[in-house]
Amino acid sequence: MIKKSDINPPVAKKIPHQLEKHGDVRIDNYFWMKDREHPEVIDYLNAENDYCDSQMAHTKGFQADLFEEMKARIKEDDSSVPYKYNGYWYITKYEKGKDYPIYTRKKESLDNPEELLFDCNKMAEGESYFKLAGISISPDNKLVSYGIDTTGRRNYTIYIKDLKTHQVAEDRIESTTGSSSWANDNATLFYTKKDEVTLRAFQIYKHRLGDQSEDELVFQEGDDTFGAAVYKSKSRKYIIIACYSTLTNEYHVLDADNPEGKFKVFQPRIRGLEYSISHYDNHFYILTNKDKATNFKLMKTPESDTAIEHWTEVIEHRDDVLIEGIDIFKDYLVISERRNGLNEIRIKRWDGTDDYYLPFDNETYTCYTSINVDFETEILRYGYNSLTTPTSVIDFNMRTKTKVVLKEQEVLDPTFNKDNYISERIWATADDGTKIPMSLVYKKGLKKDGNNPLLQYAYGSYGSTIDPYFSTVRLSLLNRGFIYVITHVRGGEYLGRHWYEGGKLLNKKNTFSDFIACSVHLIKERYTSSSHLYAMGGSAGGLLMGAIVNSAPELYNGVIAAVPFVDVITTMLDDSIPLTTGEYDEWGNPNDKLYYDYIKSYSPYDNVEAKEYPNMLITTGLHDSQVQYWEPAKWVSKLRELKTDSNKLYLKTNMDAGHGGASGRFESLKEDAEEFAFLLDLEGITE
């Protein structure tokens, strides 16, 4: 099936498979790769791994050096800033040489003895992948529920442990999201079940301790374009079921003191009505796009009358400010906003005596409210970092307006000085005249002579915004002369909700042309040139990579596409694949010919041509539940078949992981080192 040698890449066999929709016939020669269990599929993936390893063998020593360099910057024996919840201080820490976190707590005072909750290093022994999630402590602090995934498919088994005896109960709840919420009786647990085939979270169950056979289905989401989740309000008064799709929300609420009661619908779903709810005192506060509030507004309604006709306005909609979220405290309301692409934190007293913004002073920073589980406090915890400034965790007194920096990320590199780096925000002009922002960082003294290697990164889907953040890993590129650029293309929400709307559905191609326009601008302004320009994106950002190499391959010397979503039309027609039905409002439903034709016109796999492509490294995970491994595998096979150049094309499959890659904090650095070595090798940088 596969021809292999040290020089020639694997050649996958072709088995023509006819796909027909709307009278349009496509022939997919590599459709057979969908069979995950077929030995020839595994052989092919292993052969590609062997080929990638053989071709990059000369960089192995450099990869090891890069890995050690990245690892050396990380404080290995680190711990989080403690936060207090329900009488206990909770701490997450790492120990030297160990991959996984250790979770502990201390009762009332940080001077008290430490109680071990979980040592994930011991729990992960013998597992090639390990992820613990959804830690939920019972109201009486005696029990903890938690989820474990050992495949990387984000399919968790929930366990329950007695925190006094450390005995794990016999209860095993499989095929879940991993998260769960306790009722106030300390004996009833609500959790979300996943469909075993599509992995859609769609059922909410009630579990009574020690009696799994009697688990009761309390809600089932019947619309396969929706998912469901369950959580507890910060006020601890309500268990809340959230039903969600790309464009529509619905919530159901239950008094947490009455787990045997019936959930009540908060406001029935209306297509296009997005809302989220928070509870305070005797009201619910609602963040919503009601009445064409594109950038969202804040409303409230009494607990007793939650239907939409009872909602009243608290903060009005503004065309130039996106409301991203709220944090509710006893005396304060904190609003996370975004204006002209920049994060802002607004603080209002409930009694109306104060209303102000935290001050920030540059254009390439990220700030965000952090863990704020204490309802009674006047302290707001938030995080701050920038492209040049390591992350700080800050406690801000909302009454006195004073702050304490509790922790600044340590960069264990004696040569690191944040003043040695420059960050800036620049704007390119898209094809339709829209100004597209970019956040850049590079080392001081750099000359704009067109000779600088530059890595341009973007995501650009789901309204997900990639803010300018600090990275110790990235220093390995910056210190070797690279410029790093985050391109804030349409499809994200960097400039507000309209920025997202401008890069989805029948506007999706704006995401791709925005990225290319930014590349052209960077070359024109002599930050770099096409022989030194590199592009990188993952998942939906990998779709972006596939689109740009089809439409403007001459602009890039190299491209890294991580877990790329590249077989868009076939995937969106297959409703048995995880996520497909829930994505119709993002990409369009190709069962409708209008969307079929549009998606087909940009789907990377369908638009591979006989022409020259840049050097490319493509990565995937065998157990990926979000972008199935066969998409990048098929794409590479088709590229090998048609491309007319002799440039590098590598496919690297992690045979033990899923969408997020390796699970250990150091194992993931090995993947970073391999990707960086690929880029640096193309620049002739070997140390």
TrEMBL record:
Pfam families: Peptidase_S9, Peptidase_S9_N. Signal peptide: none annotated. One of its GO terms (molecular function) is serine-type endopeptidase activity. InterPro entries: AB_hydrolase_fold, Pept_S9A_N, Peptidase_S9_cat, Peptidase_S9A, Serine_Peptidase_S9A. Its main location: periplasm. Residues 10-409 form the Peptidase S9A N-terminal domain. Keywords: Hydrolase, Periplasm, Protease, Serine protease, Signal. Residues 469-681 form the Peptidase S9 prolyl oligopeptidase catalytic domain. The keyword Signal applies. GO terms for biological process: proteolysis. GO terms for cellular component: periplasmic space. It is found in: Periplasm. It comes from the Bacteria. Belongs to the peptidase S9A family. Cleaves peptide bonds on the C-terminal side of prolyl residues within peptides that are up to approximately 30 amino acids long. Has an absolute requirement for an X-Pro bond in the trans configuration immediately preceding the Pro-Y scissible bond. PANTHER family: PROLYL ENDOPEPTIDASE-LIKE, PROTEASE FAMILY S9A OLIGOPEPTIDASE. This is Proline-specific endopeptidase. It comes from Winogradskyella sediminis.
